[in-house]
Amino acid sequence: MRGSRTDGQSRRPCRYAHQLPFQLENYILNVKREHTSWGARKIRERLSRRFSGIKIPAKSTIHAVLDRHGLVERRGRLRRRAQGTALSLGNTPNQLWCTDYKGEFLLGNRQYCYPLTVTDHASRYLLTCEALSSTKEDYAFTVFERLFEERGLPSNIRSDNGVPFASAHALFNLSKLAVWWLRLGIGIERIKPGHPQQNGRHERMHLTLKKETTKPAAANFLQQQARFDDFIEIFNNERPHEALDMKCPAEVYQPSTRSYKGLPDIDYPFHDKTILVTHCGRICLGRKKINFSTVFAGQAVGIKEVHDDIWLVSFMDYDLGYFDLETRVLEPLDNPFGPRLLPM
């Protein structure tokens, strides 16, 4: 996923705008308020003359600071600023699916099994339980694609912050799986780290699953999958649920009306250019290569010059950050996909 580097530069997204000393950031804001027509280039020049002996932030960093404080005029259509996916209550089927891996365990043949599970939050319907040999992203892609083909698309998917749902070192902690969900119009939701109770309904299902299918474990993957399949049948069609007025999940759940038809086309009519992110996670603008993120490899992003040599990068309706051609490193905007507390 990381690819090779030959220039010695790190591909890790620069987050300098969020680490500026308070005094320096305050000075930037004061200069902008005093000279409302000044852009990042002029403010940076003022900084270099005012402060000696410190690292002067890049133009894109200064522009990101101004943007975060509402001091940047946005031209063109009103875009949905990336503010994060609101955690849904999931009161109706397919409004919210929950997913996780039930902790790994040893089969009789001494191989580890990693069950990937998905439930519908409203109906408690167990959509799938797959006995996998690892948490590799490719395996999860296969499971979810088959599930989307059979059941349609949910509005949102809730998970924890682990692989393959998130990537600790990627832009906004996204993974390729999460980016794929976004492309399909699925909102991503993440529980707060260390708070599995925020996915409580799913975790309670896991307790029952573990008790009835893994004590003891089966001899191999085929036999373990057969146990999971039997559990799904009973859990959905025979086991009454108190929260459903003693109905079975299958009596409440209905497939989604949003059918899966592959990835929809994506374009950026209000941007200057549409660019495919390279396999190694870069945006190429002429001869300039801007470090971006490998989780977007192969995806089309829109870029727009919003100020002199300062470019905005957008993915779908999300504005992700700025770069300039001097530093060639993305300066991210506020993280729209960070963990948030669930509503009570």
Can you offer a commentary on this structure?
- By secondary structure, the protein is an alpha+beta fold.
- It has helices spanning 22-34, 40-50, 59-68, 137-151, 176-183, 200-213, 221-237, 249-252, and strands at 97-101, 105-106, 112-120, 126-132, 156-159, 187-190, 273-276, 282-285, 288-291, 300-307, 310-315, 318-324, 331-332.
- The protein has two domains: 16-79 and 270-332, no CATH class; 97-252, Nucleotidyltransferase, domain 5, CATH 3.30.420.
- It has eight helices and 13 strands.
- A hairpin with a 6-residue loop joins strand 12 and strand 13 (331-332).
- Helix 1 packs across helix 2 (40-50) and helix 2 (40-50) crosses helix 3 (59-68).
- The longest helix is centred in the middle third of the chain and has 17 residues, at 221-237.
- The two termini are 38 Å apart.
Write a brief caption for the model.
The chain is α+β, with helices and mostly antiparallel strands and 344 residues long.
Question: How are the secondary structure elements laid out?
Answer:
Blueprint: H1 22-34, H2 40-50, H3 59-68, E1 97-101, E2 105-106, E3 112-120, E4 126-132, H4 137-151, E5 156-159, H5 176-183, E6 187-190, H6 200-213, H7 221-237, H8 249-252, E7 273-276, E8 282-285, E9 288-291, E10 300-307, E11 310-315, E12 318-324, E13 331-332
Helix pairs in contact: 1-2, 2-3
